[in-house]
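A protein record pairs a chain with a discrete description of its three-dimensional fold. The following entry can be read in just this way:
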Amino acid sequence: MSSFLSSICRNINLIAFTRNPIGQFTPCSAMPDWLVFFLVKPEDTGSYNLIEAFPYLSCFIEDAEQHWQAKCAEPLSSGVWIEIDELEHELPLEASVMYLDGQEVLLLQQLGEKYTQDLSRLQQVRNGLLTQEMLESEVKRRTLEIRKREEEIAIKLVSLTSLRDEETGAHVRRIGLYAAVMAKALGWSSEAIDTIRVAAPMHDIGKIGIPDRVLRKTGVLNDEEFNVMKKHTEIGANMLRGTKIPVLAMAVDIALNHHERWDGTGYPQGLAGEKIPISARITTIVDIYDALVHERVYKKAMPEDEALGLMQDMAGRHLDPHLMAVFLSLLPAMRRIRLEVTEENEERSDLEETEEVCV
């Protein structure tokens, strides 16, 4: 080897060996001081048994054999291992093998301080990533706690209307879960999905401002009474306005617009098509579904197939046809919510319906 290449090898703590037919390794450059401690006396041929000197290489030699037999010029690395030198210092070493000019070559390098520095940098990066992961986990945990508090507050607010209306706590919770399933199917962000899950149950919160003579009337409302009832959309929106909290901002849109119709014949503003906020269009569909298939004091539950047929007739007029198609594609998930989120007085009728379907 030329003096120039020998100087390079010396400066980077590297030595090159060629392997002879009997598996011994002959150095091609000057022996560095750090290596003398590890090598036993050379054979008469001037070669060394590197496998005996470095037992770690016995794990690598099988791959090296295949690499040499394939006559690959690209280096194959053993990976780093640690030896203890004569001063009981840790010595990071790495071997590489290749096939060059008809010879089986092994390079052995002492990585030294550079390896220690690189390892330290990697550890710092790893610690940084772990810290970031812990912080992100804590943010997610706190966000979940906030969402749970928001949901609890929303349900408490809605429960005020339930004291006067015939809606149940299970109904309003189902509305949020149905709406979240649809939002997920539409590709919404996880934050937006959580928001509609909490906001949708507040769709009828404005009913708290409707007089009992109208709200609790068991018969059909006359025109005057119906006009009073329609005010619950604006009352609810006004109750929830004036905040920058995202869940309440969405709740305003839902409360105000969940009685708007796709064809523009709804109330209170007569909005049509996509001018109606999508959160309200979703809530309209799931609210109608849940109301139709559950029993109330003023009506019996409608069989699901009849309810779905009625809703399909409403698509394109009352309901967004695209969202209605999405809803139908999610029926198995909707049924699970309907059958699992119940109150005691609902459980028996739901179980009976399930039995009928099974029969």
